[in-house]
Amino acid sequence: AQKVTQAQTEISVVEKEDVTLDCVYETRDTTYYLFWYKQPPSGELVFLIRRNSFDEQNEISGRYSWNFQKSTSSFNFTITASQVVDSAVYFCALSEEDAGGTSYGKLTFGQGTILTVHP
Amino acid sequence: DADVTQTPRNRITKTGKRIMLECSQTKGHDRMYWYRQDPGLGLRLIYYSFDVKDINKGEISDGYSVSRQAQAKFSLSLESAIPNQTALYFCATSGEELAGGYNEQFFGPGTRLTVL
User: Fold this and answer.
1) Which of B31, B37, B43 to probe the A interface (max A CBs under 10 A)?
2) B43 vs A111: CB contact, 8 Å cut-off?
């Protein structure tokens, strides 16, 4: 069975600090998809990134970057120069491909990391 | 207007009552999902549906039932609510897979349910 672990329950930083959120996953499949979602205090879930298991390139989007390492089954998320608006709960999630080669789309979520950025 | 809507947004009920949470989407997606969120546990899948005639149990389906009334509507019912079903409930949708990839899920705003 697939599993996602976000070991950091809560992280507190001061504005402009860099912060990395860890995500470790377990899967028996060779084809799978990894996601990050943000849940601000207002409660909605905001999609941040999707990565498939065959694409190990790191990705950067503004102050956000993601480091995918299959060798360690990790998909870590870094926020550079954090801002107060980054305060939220961040979820890492995994979706496996079924035996027929079509992803069911069911997401397995990690427990979430609560990030608080202080001014 | 939001693409995925949930009603009600907040509900307080008593143990033993029947509750229905509704989800509607205007994205034209075939796949719909119900998750619940509990503090420290992330989101867990309750039920999912790939089309109107396809309903599947998720990780934590006990105590819940669903109905896919149309492509755009997917309802979650608690036949006899109990206090440990107090949680934040999310509906989500996803569309056909991109060539060689998989579409992300789009989430509704959530329904906060409290069972006393």
Assistant:
1) B43
2) no
Q: With an 8 Å Cβ cutoff, are A50 and B109 in contact?
A: no
Residue A102's pLDDT band, with cuts at 50, 70 and 90, is low
The Cα diameter of chain A in Å comes to 50
Q: Compare CB distances from B105 to A43, A44, A105 and report the shortest one's residue.
A: A105
List of chain A residues whose C-beta atoms are within 8 Å of the C-beta of residue B88: 43
Q: Is the pLDDT of residue B89 over 90?
A: yes
Q: What pLDDT sits at residue B101?
A: 53
Q: Is the per-residue pLDDT at A97 higher than 80?
A: no
Q: Nearest by CB to B45, which of A44, A102, A106?
A: A106
Half-sphere exposure of A93 (CA within 13 A, CB side): 27
Tokens 């992300």 — which residue?
A: B104
Residue B79: name the closest of B34, B19, B36 by CA.
B19
Q: How far is CA B110 from the centre of its chain?
A: 9
Contact between chains at A105 and B102 (C-beta distance less than 8 A): yes
Counted across chains A and B, CB pairs separated by less than 8 A come out at: 61
* Average of per-residue pLDDT across A80-94: 97
From the centroid of its chain, how far is CA A104? 19
Residue A101's pLDDT is 59
Calculate the CA A47 to chain-centre distance. 10
